[in-house]
Amino acid sequence: MTLGPPLHEQVAALTWLQSLRLAPDLVTPGAKPEATLEAEAEALFGPLPLMGMTLLEIGAGNGGFSLAALRRGAVSAVVTDHLAWSLPGAEAGMATMLALEATGAPAQAMVLDPRALTPEFGRFDLVLGTAFFEQLFNPILALRGMSSVTGQVLLLETAQAALDEARPMLTATTRPMPYGALVSGWAPNPALMGPLLRDLGFVRVLHRAHPIEGAARGLYAAFKPDAAAGLAAGFGAPWRELAMPA
Amino acid sequence: MTPQSELSDQELLARIGRITWFHSLELRPGIVTPGAKSLAVLRREEEALLGPFDLRGRSVLDIGAWNGAFSFASKRRGAARVLATDEFAWTHPTYKGLESFELARAELGLEVETLQLDPTRMDASLGQFDLVLFLGVFYHLFDPIDVLQRMRAVTGQVLLVETHQDALEREEPAMVFYPGRTLANDDTNWWGPNPPLMLHLLRQLGFARIYYRDHPHYLPAEGSRTRGIFAAILPGAEPAMSAHFGIEWRDLGAAGAMRDFRP
Ligand SMILES: C[S@@+](CC[C@H](N)C(=O)[O-])C[C@H]1O[C@@H](n2cnc3c(N)ncnc32)[C@H](O)[C@@H]1O
Predict the structure, then answer these.
(1) Is residue A43 in a domain?
(2) Is A1 contained in some domain?
(3) What is the mean pLDDT of each run of 10 residues along chain A (246 residues)?
């Protein structure tokens, strides 16, 4: 450890998006409570055998989900964000670096726009994006980039809309974000996700509602053709398989 | 320019016959290409699409030009420079689009440039054009958001979008996805946006005013509004270029502009 102000002072000097436990007696004062983060992490990661997996996280905020995945057995994480780390005055990037350093996690942080991803970036067993569609100008391009670096499984958490529609539909939204910007983005309905992800190279898509917010938000697990056999075996109810077009 | 062609009528008819045409073009008196769109249909479309604009001396980029009806119409309306682009239909084995375009251009003696380039690969290096025609292409794209952003990069003043639309009953901006052959049994159809969605996207891309009119052949009175025309105008565009929006057009930014889209 470098000598500097005590950790709790460094934590107090920054604005946090997520409440992360950095030490037994030190939780960052984030907009998202620790219990919410843990409930979401359990819903996303609970069914997946994370042991030994490499992770790429897109739109990581403060990296709370990456830290949760590492605690659950993932071997390494590349923790990235774009908007929340690069808006003028945004401290989320610095806060994330501090959290990764304080926990000694095998993780690396970088600014990354998922639209720029190509296979040359690497191949990750698990690619994760939370609060996903609602913050992207172009989620189709972002998903194409993410698919190109997904070795086995893509996990998404997102706002949803047009739930009354049986037809696949993407809705445009404009919402205030916790990092203080009004952001335009999108919200899919579940009917969209099977066919859209199929056309982006996934062969199987599972879905469940958000553990706290219900159907207003959705969780998706999408599997690549060469995902390890049995990787989806733990996804019991409330997860359900989405129909894929022929 | 005078017609360059030295083909006899017989030879011309033979060449026309080897191509599947989308546009009916009168290449010589009495010789009309047998397009899926008739001469009368194209005349109404041309008036609806290009009527509001003064193209004299201006530059026009036609995306997905196919046989070239709107490229040729722009040139005839006085455009100084017209660049016609396409790839899908131009390289298609039965549409033979580039061959068809070149045949028509030679017969009509119009000075129109061509560039075989798909809109998914266009960017600002193409230059900026006073009017960009993006007609019948939006819904053919798997990622129309990316391509619309590319269209913004090549637009100097006005982007004109003609598209299939859907989800008209919904108030919020939305687009319907058509996997496989869901729409019209055609696997090149991907998305059907509603007018609020087009307004949202075009505004996000920095267009200041967005005007809408119903497509002349898909009118609400005829029980269908499944195609629409959007004219998106950049801040600082010359008012004189787009001075003739008739009563068919509405400013989508005006209060209540979306109201009567919904049943
Ligand atoms: C319906 S036609 C419209 C032709 C002309 N602009 C008009 O309005 O009459 C569609 C055009 O989009 C082009 N296009 C571009 N990308 C396409 C794609 N991915 N699939 C099918 N057509 C595509 C075709 O080559 C064709 O010229």
Answers:
(1) yes
(2) no
(3) 83 96 95 96 98 98 97 98 87 95 96 97 98 96 98 98 97 89 94 98 98 98 96 97 86
Q: Is residue A222 part of a domain?
A: yes
| pLDDT at position B1 over 50 | no
Per-residue DSSP letter, B105: H
Write the CATH number for A78. 3.40.50.150
* C-alpha–C-alpha distance, residues A133 and B84, integer Å: 35
Q: What strand order describes the sheet that includes A214-223?
A: A107-111, A76-81, A54-58, A124-129, A150-159, A214-223, A204-210, A240-241
Chain A, 63 to 82: residues with Cβ < 8 Å from chain B are none
Q: Name the residue range of residue A87's domain.
A: 7-241
**Does residue B4 have a pLDDT over 90?**
no
Residue B209: count other Cβ atoms within 10 Å of its Cβ: 19
- What is the domain count for chain A? 1
Query: CB A138 to CB B177 under 8 A?
Result: no
ipTM, 2 dp? 0.94
* Numbers of helices and strands, H then E, in chain A: 7, 14
b or e along A23-55 (b: 16 or more beta carbons within 10 Å of the residue's beta carbon)? Answer: eeeebbebebeeebbeebbebbbebbebeebbb
Residue A246 inside a domain? The answer is no
Nearest CA to ligand 1 atom 13: B64
Calpha distance B229→B150 (Å, rounded): 19
pLDDT tens sequence across A104-117? 999 999 999 999 99
pLDDT digits (tens, 9 = 90+) for A58-85: 999 999 999 999 999 999 999 999 988 9
Structure tokens at B174: 């939305």
What's the pTM value of the predicted model, to 2 decimals? 0.96
Residues 155-194 of B with CB under 8 A from A: 167, 170, 172-180, 191
